[in-house]
Amino acid sequence: PKARPYILCDTREQKVLRFPPDLGVDCGSATLPAGDYSVRGFTHLIALERKSVSDLVQTLSHGRERFENELDLLAEYRWKAILVEGRRGDVEAGIYRSLMTPKSVIGSLRAIWMRWQVPTFWVDSPEGCAREVAWYAQRLHDKHVDLMTKPETAA
Asked: Would the CA dihedral through 82, 88, 94, 95 be positive or negative?
């Protein structure tokens, strides 16, 4: 049988996504150099940063410098993204707790794409986020297996 994609969750991630069996992936933890999620064998190519709306707004305002350092790391990856759990329409309507304006939040995400080439994808829930991460893992295994690093063997 073909090996299932193995999603790696950063050890610092506080609310770890659950990947139901029907998503066809396995999951474990590792200390990742960037992002919250990656795929074993492809950790040099993909890094996905997961944010709630409130965490996103917080990092774009008060945590900006630290977040820009994270974006510097993400920019080095072939595939990278910010996965926001929430609705863009809620952000545009200002449905979050911060003095940062909706225009500033959306403008910051646009600037992040332009400066670091890190796109933002909106997902409806943690379950939706898990589906998104699992899709990328499956895609890498199906279409880019030639880029996979070989597992290190014990000497």
From this structure: negative
